[in-house]
Description:
With 223 residues, the chain is mainly alpha-helical.
Amino acid sequence: MLSLSLAAKHLTAPAVPASVRIAGVEVTLNRSIERLALFGCLLAAFGEIHPFCDHWAQGSTTAKCKRLYGTHRVYRDGVAVGEETTDRSGEPTTTASSRGRRAVALHVATYSAIQSGAAVALTRSFGYRVPARALLAGAAINAGTHAVIDRGALFLWLADQTGQRGYIEHCQAVRLDKDGKPQAEITGPGTAWIELDAALHRIIGVGAAAVITWLATRKRGRR
Length: 223
């Protein structure tokens, strides 16, 4: 009976060394736990903070202008020259495409700063130091894709390729203009566009978190 009890104990709770050395490198046996914990922390920083970055940190003018395209001139608030209702002579203008690029650059810079700062704050608060190179790689993935998606052209191309254009056109929002008249809007809160947009950003965030985790843990001794 004693031998059976010892055997059962050995099977259910085997004694294992805390770490092993492979090719002269110290490898702890809880590496999977470390990776899962770091990945989960980064995923929270990227996915759960994304709505804050898009809806609180982004100004309404930036949101309005970031998808502007064209060679026609616009004012800083995105109003096209010739469509203004007040005298705006002397105000600087630029092409619509240039204004769109500047708006999305501002949004992505703010988005990246908050997201990366949150990732650093969360990991540091739990006693983990993510290597700068790993964090920058993830930030580059999130920032680059965010800028391209938010400009709109690639987003619509992807929607066409995956059969989602009908969803975008069907699920629009009705808003009141400054005169109180209702008008349809294809982007913004309450639309399929914003749902698909957020879904893309968040799934890319999963990839960015995985890349950072791999880079941060592939060499032991780096914290």
